[in-house]
Design a protein that fits this description.
By secondary structure, this protein is mainly alpha-helical. β4 and β5 form a beta hairpin. It has a 3-stranded mixed beta sheet with strand order 1-3-2. The protein has a two-stranded antiparallel sheet with strand order 4-5. α1 runs parallel beside α3. It is about 55% helix and about 10% strand. The protein has 2 domains: about 100 residues; about 140 residues, no CATH class. The chain binds zinc ion. Zinc ion binds next to α7 and α9.
Length: about 325
């Protein structure tokens, strides 16, 4: 029916098929795809940036760690070199005492023990630094010994034969003290040396003033006492030598004086006027035989400071 509207579309018109939701047109699809692609790209970019940042931070952290490790290594090397220099300086100063008769002046075993400690401390800069300070302190001690010995050998403050002989024998490393040796050594003695201070010889002041006391007797007494200094400051060598004397350090000390002081005897007649004299016995009443004298020579020949290289790994 002509007046009736038909549902037939006219030419040029098109149908628009509604979507199931009725809200989107076909032209929206590429837009959505683009948005999705953009979103993915953005996510990938952000992911990549985060990844790079994490990598960068991690690399920076590794570099910082490596730098710290390098600094630590450099510090260790520096501390070890400083220790080596200090030890070389110590041995150079010790060489000033090479040949001195008292081996305990230069405690090489102690130096070696510090060197071994420094080796075991080689991964700890602080500990190696402490070891270096100990070596420097040992060197300062040796320097003091050398300068004190120089002063001591060049002066005779007591103005006595005792001191002249002791300075000569000990190279200035042994002090002469004229005091109450009887009280110090708890016996009636002409002189004595105590283990606590083996670098000092104490001569009894009262005996030193006796009318029979001559410089010759003082010299012999000083030789006997110096033997005690050597015994106490060279304990290893002395242990062996004492065997020739049945372990008696006194007869060995007498033997030292008899062997090295030409003309010395233990018994003396000392005239104090043309008709008065004293018969004086110095020592312990036994004159050593040739075998014992040779034991003393062998002992004396090996005494003293003998420098050697210091090892860190023995
Ligand atoms: Zn004695």
């Amino acid at each position: 029916m002509p007046d009736e509207e038909t549902a037939v579309p006219s030419v040029g018109e098109s149908f628009v098929e509604e979507s199931p939701t009725g809200s989107e047109t076909p032209t929206a699809r590429p837009k959505r795809l683009a948005v999705i692609l953009l979103g993915v790209a953005l996510a990938l970019t952000i992911g990549a940036v985060i990844f790079l940042v994490v990598q960068l931070l991690s690399a920076n952290s590794r570099i910082a760690e490596q730098n710290r490790e390098l600094d630590h290594q450099r510090e260790l090397i520096e501390k070890k070199e400083t220790f080596g220099t200090a030890m070389a300086q110590l041995l150079e100063t010790a060489s000033l005492l090479d040949g001195s008769l008292m081996s305990s002046l230069v405690p090489l075993d102690s130096y070696e023990s510090i060197a071994r400690l420094a080796w075991s401390h080689r991964w700890s800069a602080g500990s190696v630094e402490a070891d270096t300070r100990r070596i420097q302190s040992e060197e300062a001690t040796l320097k003091d010994l050398v300068s004190e010995a120089s002063v001591q050998a060049g002066s005779n403050t007591s103005g006595t034969t005792y001191e002249a002989v002791i300075d000569d024998l000990g190279g200035g490393h042994v002090t002469t003290v004229i005091d109450d040796a009887d009280t110090l050594c708890e016996a009636d003695v002409l002189a004595c040396v105590v283990y606590d201070d083996p670098f000092a010889v104490h001569f009894d002041a009262a005996d030193a003033g006796q009318p029979y006391m001559t410089d010759w007797l003082r010299t012999g007494i000083a030789y006997h006492e110096f033997a005690h200094v050597l015994q106490m400051t060279n304990p290893d060598a002395t242990d062996t030598a004492l065997e020739a004397f049945g372990g008696d350090p006194e007869t060995m000390a007498d033997c030292f004086a008899l062997t090295y002081l030409s003309g010395w005897t233990l018994d003396h007649r000392v005239y104090v006027s043309s008709y008065e004299y004293w018969d004086v016995s110095i020592g312990y009443g036994y004159t050593c035989d040739e075998t014992q004298a040779q034991a003393v020579r062998d002992w004396y020949g090996q005494l003293g400071v003998h420098l050697r290289p210091i090892s860190q790994s023995r």
